[in-house]
Design a protein that fits this description.
The structure is a single chain. The chain is mainly alpha-helical and 202 residues long. The protein has one domain (32-197). The protein has 7 helices and no strands. The longest helix has 51 residues, at 3-53. It starts with a helix and ends in a 5-residue tail after the last helix. 19% of the residues are buried.
Length: 202
């Protein structure tokens, strides 16, 4: 067999490998970003419910907080270099979100509820959740978690100032923009990955 025949065949054998690796990288990117997108959608749904029905959903936020804590641990797991660092990461996040749950429980005490209205309590809980999410993202150096905290913080004045129907449209637009941004980012990462792993010519 001549070298001229083996050359094209070798080139053809590399192409499926590059395509397969790019597909695997896309799947990996989606798996990494899926938890953040899920929490963002759950947050927007909670904000929409609170703004439309004018009722705080404390149990909803209490369940969402540990979920964000797990995501923060997952985000900081790769940067933790040894077992002690990972144990410290778990404990700091656990104490961080336990403190949030304690403060939320204090705000729901009957003596406190006599001072705060139902809507004010809901906004205060969402503000605390936004602050806790953003600071947790700073601690684990995750811009995705920080972005979730910013979205929660922006939802507080949105609930307070925008009418229900307008807020629903704003939330829908935010979801569409968020999904579009995720699609754009993944396409950009996939193109960069293909460019870095494409076989050199010449």
């Amino acid at each position: 067999m001549s070298s001229a025949e083996s050359g094209p065949r070798a080139g053809q054998s590399k192409t499926p490998q590059v395509t397969g690796s790019s597909n695997l990288s896309r799947v990996g990117l989606w798996r990494r970003e899926l938890p953040y997108a899920l929490v963002l959608i759950l947050t927007l749904l909670g904000v929409a419910y609170t703004s439309y029905f004018k009722q705080p959903i404390m149990a909803y936020w209490a369940l969402l907080a540990p979920l964000i804590g797990v995501i923060c641990v997952s985000a900081g797991w790769r940067s933790a270099q040894d077992k002690d660092a990972r144990i410290r990461l778990i404990w700091t996040q656990a104490l961080h979100w336990f403190a949030f749950l304690v403060v939320m429980s204090v705000m729901m005490l009957p003596s406190v509820q006599k001072i705060l209205s139902t809507s004010a309590s809901g906004l205060a809980i969402l503000t605390l959740l936004a602050l806790g999410t953003f600071t947790a993202g700073v601690h684990v150096l995750s811009w995705q978690v920080c972005l979730l905290g910013l979205v929660m913080a922006l939802a507080v004045p949105a609930i307070a100032w925008i009418e229900e129907s307008a807020l629903i449209f704003v939330l829908i637009a935010a979801v569409v923009l968020g999904i579009g941004a995720l699609f754009w980012w993944h396409r950009h990462e996939a193109r960069a990955h293909r460019a870095n792993h494409s076989p050199s010519t010449g």
